[in-house]
Amino acid sequence: MMKILIVGAGATGGYFGTRLIQAGRDVTFLVRPHRAEQLRDGLRGCGPGYDLTVPVRAVTAGELDGPYDLILLMTKAWSLDQALEDIAPVVGPDTTILPLLNGMAHLERVNARFGRGAVLGGIVRVVATVTPEGAVFQFKPGATMIFGEQDRQHTDRAARVQQELSVPGYDLVLDEDVLAAMWHKWAFIVAGGTTTCLMRGTIGAILATPGGREFVLEVIAETERVAAAAGYPVSDAAHAASLEMFTEPGSVFTSSLYRDLTAGFRHEGEHLLGEFVATAERYGVEVPLTRLALAHVRVHDQAGSPRPQSVLAGTH
To answer: What's the whole-model pTM score?
Structure first.
């Protein structure tokens, strides 16, 4: 059995960690002191058809006891640099690190810190939130984790990780082209963020406005052009998923970025939109709508300091 460290016990770390603990895996959470206090009596997870509390081992950085066999990075982007410093003492020569953040820029930072050979790529999908009381609430059924080697190889290491992470409660996919999956999710998230931040409303409200559907379709096309220029053209299935999500009449969907902005919480606008615009520039792709959304976010931030942490729902 692998010794697993999950960095972060928010919506994503908490959800997947709960499922691993239920299956008897050896899991430790690395958290901040206030979160450790919340988890002292266990981690509650609830959602459609379930409500449970599992005992957890939660430690702060100074209490880590390594090395660990597998480290799952499930923090927000702004916490990544500190997280890398915190885990450094417990990364051994055989440790595998699997960052599960949104976007692509974080992967370069983890590679630079620990070496590409120690790092897998991956994404997760779950619609969940952390309640003010510290419980992880899942809004809709279904969760997925996709991971794989960065060089499109199927290795014994990846197979071992697959075996360890294969537990009930979510779908697990070992993807030999995991960077494509990461790119496709990034394009999807940027499309949702650009659309709802610029229009300041739900998808349903945007579509009900003259010209709204055309605007949404152009945002999708803009983000997909960048993915294609980077060498990861969006598949027909991924494109269809974007259309289904972003062109449903009456949809109440808004992006987590938009919700964080309107609530005054800290957000990942620079990590998601800023890095996307910078990447588009490197490939010579014009992204006027995404660039406008980024400017909107930056102007919003200049108006006041965000609160430190969101407890709103997020689609990860």
So the answer is: 0.91
